[in-house]
Amino acid sequence: MTTPAGAERRRRRYLGVALQRRLILVLAALEAVLVAAFLLWLRARLGGLAEALAFRAHPPPGPVAPLFLAEIARAAAGFVAANAAVLLAAAAVWERRVAALRRPLCRLLAAAGDLDLRPRPAGGGHEALELAQVWLAAERARHRRVRELVAGLAGAGAEDCARRLAEIEARVQGPPRSG
Questions:
Q1: CA quadruple 114, 118, 124, 126: dihedral positive or negative?
Q2: DSSP 124
C-alpha cells in the first residue's frame, strides 16, 4: 500500500493560536496608542520650545537645532521604554501560557516513555493535549495488539516462531513507506 506524497508530513500545530491572536491585537492597539501619545507629546514639547524661543528678546547664542534634537531624543527614549515594558508584559503572559501547556504534556510523554500507557485526564482542554491523548490511546491499542500477537507464539515451534515473529513485525510496523 502506498501513500500519496506528503501524506505523512506532520502538520505544525501552534500552541495558543487564540492567545497569539489576542496578544497581537493588543500589541498593535497599544502601539497605535503609543505612537499617537508620542506624537502629541512631541508636538506639545517642540511647540512649547519653539514658542519660548520665538518670544525671547535675546535669542540664545548658537544654533537651536540641538535643543529640538534633545527634546526628540527624550521623547524617543520614553517611547522605546514604553514599548519595551509592553513587550516584556506580553512575553510574560506568553511564557505562562506555554508553561501551563508544557507541564501536563511533558508528564504525559514521560509516562509514555516509561511505558505507562494508562489513560490520564488531559487537563487544560488544549488541542496539543487532546492530540497527545489520541496518540496515547493509539499507543495503548498498539501495545495491546503486540501483546496479543506475542501471546500467540507461546505454543509455536522454533521455525514456526521465527516465521510468526516476522509476520508480527510486519503487522506492527505497518506497510513499508514510500519516499
A1: positive
A2: S
Q: What is the mean pLDDT of residues 85-101?
A: 87
* Helix spans in the chain (H): 17-54, 65-113, 127-151, 158-173
Q: Rounded to whole angstroms, how far apart are CA atoms 159 and 169?
A: 16
Domains in the chain: boundaries:
15-116, 118-179
Residue 1 has what pLDDT?
43
Write the pLDDT tens digit of every residue in 50-86.
888 887 777 777 788 888 899 889 989 988 999 999 8
Q: In this structure, which amino acid lies at residue 77? A: A
Pairwise CA distance, residues 116 & 119, whole Å: 9
Length of the chain: 179
* pTM across the whole model: 0.57
Distances (CA, A) of 160 to 59, 152, 156, 164: 107, 11, 6, 6
